[in-house]
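Student: Hello, beginner here. Can you help me understand the protein record under this note? Any guidance would be welcome.
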Amino acid sequence: MANATFYLINPDSPQATQAGFLHYVVFLAQHFAKQGAKVYLNAQDKAQAEQLAEYFWQVEPEQFIGHNLIGEGPKYGTNIEIGHQALKPSWNRQLVINMAENETTFANKFAEVVDFVPCEEKAKQLARERYKIYRQAGYQLQTIEIVHN
C-alpha cells in the first residue's frame, strides 16, 4: 500500500523560514537515503532545485550523501535526485519529497510521498487539496507535527 505523510510546519519553528525549510528537506532526504531509499526531491521550480542542491554541499563531511540534479551525475543517478515540476524523475525512485505547491501528477508513481503543510493560509489550502488527491489515489495518509527544540 502506498503511503503519504504530511509534515505540519508550525509558525514559530525554524522550518517556517525558507532556509530552515530547505535544511529540513535535506535532513529528511538524508534520513531516508541512509535507510536505502531512492529519493526524489520535487522542487517548486528550477531555482529552488538548484538552491536545494547547494544545501546538500553545505553539510558536515561525515553527513554528506551523493545527490544530483536530474540530467546530471551518473547514468542511474545517486540515492538522492533533485528535480522540479517540468521534469520527470528517474525510473528507480520509491519516495518523493514534494515541495511544489500544486504538483500531484506523481500520485501513484511512488510508494511513499512526503509532503508539507506550511503556515501560510493559501499554502495550507493547497496542501489540503494535495491531501485529497492523494487520498483519492488510494494512499494511506498520516500527518506528523514537526517537533523542534
The longest helix spans residues 18-34.
